[in-house]
Amino acid sequence: MICSMVRDMSMEVRIEAFYALGKIGMVSEDILLQTLSKKVLVATKEKKSLAQCSDEQLEVSGSSVAGAFMHGLEDEFHEVRKAACHSLGTLTILSSKFAGEALNLLMDVLNDDSILVRLQAFETMHQMATFGHLKVQEKHMHMFLGTLVDRNTLTRSAARKVLKLAKLPDLKLFRSTIDTLLDNLEMCPQDEADILNVLFHIGQNHGKFVVRIIEEVSQQMEPVSNGKLGFDNVRVAALLVLAISAPLSQERDCSIPPSIFSYAVTYLGRISHALSDIIHQDGLLNYLSQCSRSSGPYDMEFDFSARELPGSIAMPLPQKRRGTSEILSPIVKEPREAGTSLVEYGLDVQDEVTKSMNVVLEKVKDIWPFVQAGFTTEGLRTLRSCREELATLTSGSIASGGTFAFTMQYIKIMKLLAKAWVNFLPPRHLPSSGMGDLDFVLGKLDARLSELKSMFIGLSKVEELHILELILVTCMLKLSKVEICCRLGTLRKLSCTMAHAESLLEDGTVEPSRFMIEVRKLLSEIGTSLKGSSCNPILFRRVLESFFLKQLVLCGGLKHIKADLDIPDNDYEHPLHFVAGLPVGIPCHITLHNVSVESRLWLKMTANGIDDTQFVYLDSNLFGGCDDHRMAMFTAPFYKTPKAFSFTVSVCICMEYLSEDEDVSFLKRCGPRHELTSLCRENEVFLSKVK
Question: DSSP states of 355-376 as a string?
Fold first, then answer.
């Protein structure tokens, strides 16, 4: 009996029991309702079949299933609570009444300590809304709207995703929702694109309510006394997005004053960016132009996919499928569900960690317009917020995963890129301070990108091309400097990186970006000869103008190449003892993760204060285990002990990798022969002279 197993002593059994419950295809509505109440409500004999394709019914008693989901949602382990939420989502498809009762429990789950459980609760609500079973009531709204202003980016994003499909029962709840979203917009300006997108979808679902709201706030959208609109007024932009969505509502005769559509044209770039997943900018302009010449009703049809402005316009209004609107997207050229975010469409990823990382990466992509406009501080603030959101995902299975590590490294790279980019903006956009020395920032950016490219296994072609494009950008930034040194080396790296990208693009499955096309043209003109080293930096700056940061969508399955290094029984109070001038052994406990047997590993040891670095080769035969997890105990000799009473040595494990632009004619004869990347943080070893 599955329901009895949800109370099993084993956490793993309870988890599997809940997932099994979610796969049941035939069960009576009374039994479903009984799982939500610990008080016995029904008898076994009373059953009402809800499935259509099963030959036998599940014989259970009310007492055996009583409160099964309540037990799951109150479990001490977040993994069990998450599994219970997941099963609720699949079973709510069977009964709208069960979905309504389950919603009462899910609202309490929104206060769960675990962000993974909260996100699963939102996913369950989204599934309910997809099948038309999300019946939002006034008693739910206070809790739900509170999540829209949550400090956690993932929580806010998940809540807005549900709102895209929700059907609000009355004007009071609709007005409260819009007010909360407007407050959310002022509190979290980095979420602007997502919030405007949600307002557009809400307007489509509630055309009549939109008309009432616009009648009340129309004065706020009027030009000010000098006849100009407040272009920096994000509230006006939000209300305009809400207004222009009304004609596309299933509720016909939703007339909006034509002047509103004219005002919206002045926000065209801002609005089209927010609605880029469903509307092309030319199609949006087409739509606004037509509506500005009509006082309604809007019996015409609009083609948002059109890139020109033809005389006749045709776009089918959203069609309903299973309670969900579908809109033809010109970008993906496939019907896509309204309410599904860009990072999830076309991405069949079951790993919720990968989905969470992609939500964060979507926010990272949104900083680029700020950086290009000179608002670097705002962009860095958004990146800081993204890092804080990742810091909340402290579960061991998440924080130790390759996808998590990749995302953290990517955010650090974006921070460096933003700091470097600001140095090439017009003088009026330059911040007063805080961006760091350009040479230092570019050097660090180059190193971080090399690490990102070499320290992860399982990168897809699109992911690798994204990294290569960022390396090309870094090279172009270096070459855009007037006083750059090592110009030939940078040109060589630019050429080699472009060649690598070309090899990945050969099969034609991925289209090169406009920036890559421009780099290819420039390289064909200047070559990598000595005459290329004297090219005007303006040529490189012009190519940089074609760069725009795209959304990086992770497919999951990444493995992080790393190592753990421990120096046992050593700290400031328990130093290792040495004799000056004689070698000293440093005991090391080493664990390698996802490091192949063919890799060349080195132990790097640097004596602090005397700037002396030594390398010790780590033979692969020292390690036991498989590639995923290998361990060894090794005593490393440090030879040049100084004539001092005490000193410290910084120790870390490094791996050689051969970069495309490396000049093999200058390889060392001893020690590491290629560039090194660190697999772990430096450990400080304390040593004291023998008395």
Answer: HHHHHHHHHHHTTHHHHHTT-H
Give the C-alpha separation, 689 to 320, whole Å.
80
Please tell me what DSSP assigns to residue 167.
B
The answer to whether the beta carbons of residues 99 and 88 sit under 8 Å apart is no
Rounded distance between C-alpha atoms, residue 21 and residue 103, angstroms: 18
First to last CA, the chain: 72
From 681, 678, 680, 677, select the one nearest 658 (Cα to Cα): 677
How many Cα atoms sit within 13 Å of 54 on the Cβ side? 12
Continuous segment of H or E residues that includes residue 274: helix 268-274
Q: Give yes or no for residue 619 having a pLDDT over 80.
A: yes
Structure tokens given for 462: 């699109």
- Position 590 scores a pLDDT of 93
The answer to whether the beta carbons of residues 623 and 632 sit under 8 Å apart is: yes
Q: Are the CB atoms for 136 and 167 separated by under 8 Å?
A: yes
Listed in sequence order, the residues at least 6 apart from 632 whose beta carbon sits closer than 8 Å to its beta carbon are 590, 618, 622, 623, 624
Q: pLDDT for 140-174, tens place per residue?
A: 788 888 888 887 878 888 899 999 888 888 888 89
Q: Rounded to whole angstroms, how far apart are CA atoms 31 and 426? A: 68
- Torsions phi, psi for 313 (to 5 deg): -125, 140
Asked whether the beta carbons of 26 and 58 are under 8 A apart, the reply is yes
Strands (E), 247-337: 319-321, 324-328, 335-337
202, 418, 566 from 315: Cα distances, Å: 19, 39, 64
Please give the model's pTM, rounded to 2 decimal places: 0.56
Q: Beta-carbon neighbour count of residue 244 at 10 Å?
A: 28
Beta bridge partners of 337: 326
The predicted-structure confidence for 579-614, as pLDDT tens digits, reads as follows 988 999 999 999 999 988 888 899 999 988 777 789
- How far apart are alpha carbons 168 and 207 in whole angstroms? 11
